[in-house]
Amino acid sequence: MHTKKRCIDNFGICANPNYTLTKNFNQNINRMKLQQTQWPQNLTFHNLCTTRELPPNTKELLGLNLKYCIASKFLPNNINNTVRKMAYSIRTKYYLQGTDLQQKSEYIKQIYIKNKYWNPPPAPTLIEEKITEFEKKLKRLQQNYKTKTKLRNLRNLTFSHLKTLQILKSDTSVIIKPTDKNLGPAIMEKDTYIKQVLSEHLLTQEYRRLTAIEAKNKIIDITEHLKKLINDNRHFLSKPELTFFQRSLQAHHRLPIFYGLPKVHKTPISLRPVVSNTNGLLAVFSTWLDFKMKDLLPLVKSYIRNSFEVINDLKHLTLPKEAKLFSADAKSMYTNIDTPTGLTSIRAFIIENIETLPENFPTELFLEVLKIVMENNIFCFADSHWLQLSGTAMGTPAACAYATISYGYHENSQILPQFTPNLLYFKRYIDDILGIWLPPSTNKESTWESFKCKLNEWGSLTWIIEDPSHNTTFLDLNIKIENGKILTSTHQKPMNLYLYIPPPSAHPPSCLKGLIIGEMKRYWQQNNEQDFKSILSKFLVRLTERGHNINALAPILQDAAAIIDKKPIITPHAANDNTLFIHWVYHPHGIQRQEIRRIYDETLKPFLSYDNMQVAISRPNNLRDLLSRASLHTPNDTTINDFIAQHYNTT
User: Fold this and answer.
1) What is the DSSP letter of 113?
2) Domain ranges for the chain
3) Res. 102 pLDDT band, cuts 50 70 90
4) Angle (CA) 269 273 276, round 5°
5) Angstrom distance (rounded) from CA 337 to CA 340
6) Which residue, 34, 56, 386, 605, is the most exposed by fewest CB within 10 angstroms?
7) In Å, how far are 114, 148, 253 from 245, measured between CA atoms?
8) What whole-number distance in Å separates Cα of residue 639 and Cα of residue 648?
9) Which residues contact 440 (CB under 8 A, 6 or more apart)?
């Protein structure tokens, strides 16, 4: 029995010497088929190729979802990195305790950048010994796992998956992207993709092509101007803000990258423009703008953060008989906020609310930085360089808050004062409006038309506005008025593929648990009991179609139900400023979270003064990391300039 278990553990099969080869083969194939029930049945992706024939098993690979995490063939060697980060945190805590520095006064989470040139001195000798003991025990446990699995292939992709993955990675004629609205992965010919990016976006009047030298010189000028601005206005900035700029500007900055996401829910299919601004120069200053805008957002009277706030608001409303619902959707809001209108509105908004803002709010510095960020969005597309000429700077961290506040000034100063008697409720989430309309006793039609006109009297932005009725959709909510009461239910997009993470994915178990608990809490809050049962049943069916076993899900469902029953919901061991995080890269066949916690409890916990310890699990690479990069390599070594010259009559 022991030998049989070892064979199954190491090789996945165990042959019986008393059986023929054929019988052994058939028996083990049947056993392997049972194991394969974890693979999802719902395998879907969007094939947008018109001429390219895709390799076999493309559906089986991309249908797993681009978020599918790939387990490496062998256990990773990441203990040194884990211990290094943990020791850094522990030593820093002891250093701060031994000095006059106050950790909280030097730390603002959103704009904190670690000083990569500084390392804390060693902790007290006993603590250093316990860190070493923790490391040794962790390495011993890791070695046990490696010994146990050394003859096993730990990958969670089949041979056909891996072959298809390699073909798609090396195929320069196609491009793979997630779709807009999170409707699943899509694959299309790269030539078609480039043509759409150029014709729909970059070769329009909203952008200007730059040479590489022009782009470089412009970025140098912007950098020097921004550095001077910060230096000249340093007396308006706190120490954490100055530290943020100092450390951020020492880093290497890459040029933002433009790419498009297929809008498969549109006919014909177009591309949603996206700019990846990670590690970009202007992202540094936009992050600071976003931080300062936190003081402005609550002053926008229509501001809401999510649909949960809407539900809580609606619960407390008393509806007159004539009340009706309406919603409005801005048409390409970011693109259609022209910069002069946006900047003028932000300035007026700050001046109007200056008494409410924190003392010494750096108005002129804020507005000057905002102007630079919005007017100098330079990015690359493959080997070409571009400047955005109009609209909100794509990809900039402050974009959402900028759109909310700039139009919020129009709402606060024009819409709400004039139409308060007609608006029982009026809230906006960026480019989506929800309202409850109370028509006047006379001039009903003209008042509604006047209101619609007023919504559209701000710059070049236009709104698609529903007429008042007893039903509407807002964010993830279906909302209706029935018998004088407001009822809500969960709205789900018709084209949603529901490609939930399948069991073989190398995600930490907490991801599935978090998904189920989060969805059940959302369904419970958004629906009545009957609708809750209906949508929960659909959710469970969709999970089983993705390979999950209902019996395995039962304990998670019970935990979710117990959490929902708690009022208010209390999350145990919530992280705070006195929490130690131990970082660990997850592998399904390696050391698990509870084992790290056990070793910590045995070695370090009795000697440290942290309130909590959390194992911060990070995922391995997923299919998107391997197949869908933001950067683009043109086919056949052609340049974008060559492509433009070949396909477009432009210079």
Assistant:
1) -
2) 79-152+572-624, 195-490, 509-565
3) low
4) 140
5) 9
6) 34
7) 12, 49, 13
8) 14
9) 421, 422, 447
**Encoded tokens for 55:** 């390799």
Once rounded to an integer, what is the mean pLDDT over residues 469-474?
Answer: 97
Residue 615 has which token pair? 């194992």
| Beta strand 207-210 pairing with 174-178 | unpaired
**Are 584 and 66 in contact, with CB atoms under 8 Å apart?**
no
Contact 501, 507 (CB under 8 A): yes
Q: Which two tokens stand for residue 132?
A: 């070493």
Residue 151: predicted pLDDT: 79
- pLDDT of amino acid 27: 59
- Residue corresponding to tokens 């629906």: 527
pLDDT digits (tens, 9 = 90+) for 249-286: 998 999 999 999 999 988 899 999 999 998 999 999 99
pLDDT value at 11 more than 60: no
Q: Which helix (H) or strand (E) holds 574?
A: none
Among 379, 431, 430, 402, smallest CA distance to 291 is for: 402
Q: Is the peptide bond before 568 cis (omega within 30 degrees of 0)?
A: yes
Distance CA 591, CA 604 (A): 18
Q: Identity (one letter) of the amino acid at 524? A: W
Euclidean distance between the first and the last CA atom of the chain, given in angstroms as a whole number? 76
Q: How many whole angstroms separate alpha carbon 90 and alpha carbon 83?
A: 10
Strands (E), 430-521: 432-437, 463-465, 471-474, 477-482, 485-490
Strands 384-388 and 378-381: what pairing? antiparallel
Strands annotated E in 454-550: 463-465, 471-474, 477-482, 485-490
Tokens of 284: 């540094």
Q: CB-side exposure of 138: number of CA atoms within 13 Å?
A: 29
DSSP H helical segments within 202-269, as ranges? 212-232, 239-250
CB 431 within 8 A of CB 333: yes
Q: Are 27 and 19 in contact (CB under 8 A)?
A: yes
Measured CA to CA in angstroms, residue 333 lies from 379, 456, 588 at distances of: 20, 12, 43
Give the chain's mean pLDDT.
Answer: 90
Tally Cβ neighbours within 10 Å of residue 573: 10
Give me the pLDDT at residue 23, please.
64
